Amino acid sequence: MTPAARYAAAITVLDLWLAGMPVEKALTGWARGARYAGSKDRAAVRDHLFDILRRKGSCAALGGGGTGRGFVLGLLRLTGQDPAEIFTGAGYAPDPLTGAEAVSPDLLPDPSLDIPDWLHPALASQYGSDLPPLIAALGQRAPVFLRINQRKTSRAKAVAALSSAMIEARVVKGCETALEVLSGQRKLRQASAYLEGLVELQDLSVQRACAAVDWPGQGRILDYCAGGGGKALAIAARSDAEVTVHDARPERMADLPARAARAGVRLMQQTTDALPSGDPFDLVLTDVPCSGSGTWRRDPEAKWRLTPDRLAELQALQRQILQLAAGLVRPGGRLVYMTCSLLRAENQDQIEAFLARQSGWVQTARHVDTPLTASDGFFMAELTQTRPAA
To answer: Are residues 348 and 229 in the same domain?
Structure first.
């Protein structure tokens, strides 16, 4: 496909998204019908889509409207490309520009357009002068980070193993497990370093939050909202404690046994019904469902799906999970609360409300990152039960 044809494909997918179809479903549907498109073509179209969704408001303003065609036109102007070279009508290129489209709006890029209007007051009160650069950072592509498996390798050996697969990575200062991938990202899942469990994909902010927790070296740890199990694998790589995983939707953990085997660690699985009747845990981790606002540059569509009602539902669920998980902690044990959210309402407000209604707990640690300090937005609070063990 030519560069112009890739942009035309992005217009097609965007119009499907605007009609209500999830972007990944729209992209998959287009790819199935475009058998002429190779893997590089599909990746390029996906990149265009995500670049636009990260900066949707800016693209619409510079492109003259909220249509697939307008978004692509705006993206070209944002990135300094001449739209007339893409909108030619030749072959599979988009139709030529109209007279009105050919006139570029006399506007400067405005990052504030790139988050939902209803979130502006809360974010402005929380971040103040840091908000404009924070929104601008969310408009950029996220870097790719790996976590080394400390049971199998060192960072230097992992870098060398990745290099042999033509993947360039470098050590990240200040985080003993992290590598940043500089090139060759799309080769990762076929690289021997990945297949042999030397490295796992995991964002830097997550790794920094996990490093801020003093995980017990022995005893029992529960990952209550395990999902794909990335944090449970990270814990098992650094602790000899028994690590149990649980998720309200067990199908989310379907790949976890294979991932644990590749990493050379053992994870126990437990059902929701069985947890209350079992022995309590020394530490319970709750990486709760949230807005995902800290990961919007990785999943920019989620930014436009979030509504005030959905945020309220998530906050209610977070309160419920905190309450349930607290009952699984042994006397004197710890409860760790995590989100990938930038919103105080999902983070410190939840912790303060829990401490206000639940006696016998104190906050003993906290760690916060944003895309300005690490990569994604991430929040961690550690709570310790002050009632001692019998």
So the answer is: yes
Q: What is the mean pLDDT of residues 73-92?
A: 95
Catalytic-residue membership of 340: yes
Is the domain of 179 the same as that of 301? no
Residue after which a domain boundary falls, among 165, 186, 202: 202
Q: Round to whole Å and give the CA distance between 83 and 72.
A: 9
Assign 3-class secondary structure to the chain: CCHHHHHHHHHHHHHHHHCCCCHHHHHHHHHHHCCCCCHHHHHHHHHHHHHHHHCHHHHHHHHCCCCHHHHHHHHHHHCCCCHHHCCCCCCCCCCCCCCCCCCCCCCCCCHHHHCCHHHHHHHHHHHHHHHHHHHHHHCCCCCEEEEECCCCCCHHHHHHHHHHCCCEEEECCCCCCEEEEEECHHHHHHCHHHHCCCEEECCHHHHHHHHCCCCCCCCEEEECCCCCCHHHHHHHHHCCCEEEECCCCHHHHCCHHHHHHHHCCCEEECCCCCHHHCCCEEEEEEECCCCCHHHCCCCHHHHHHCCHHHHHHHHHHHHHHHHHHHCCEEEEEEEEEEECCCCHHHCHHHHHHHHHHCCCEEEEEEEEECCCCCCCCEEEEEEEECCCCC
Residue 68 lies in a domain: yes
Report, as an integer, the average pLDDT of 16-28: 95
**Confidence class of residue 221 from pLDDT cuts 50, 70 and 90?**
very high
